[in-house]
Write the structure tokens for this entry.
Amino acid sequence: MPRHKTTDPGYTNPHGQRVIAGTGFPSETFPGQKIYHLRCTHCGHDYGANGTDIHTRRCPRHQDGAKGEPLREPPPNLFSA
């Protein structure tokens, strides 16, 4: 089984929280960090988390995890089709 860094898409921590993608947005709770899109593999809840605590995150919906950071849509890109 391939090993992933904790911020790589596909990484799943021991509590079943999977990294979907990096958002590119800055963290509102941890200066200098970016927000990553996480999904709980147990209940499907999507939320944002900074890169420093992905390895220990628990789902905010049903595992008493910390409230996630907001997931935002990126602004329109002039070059996207």
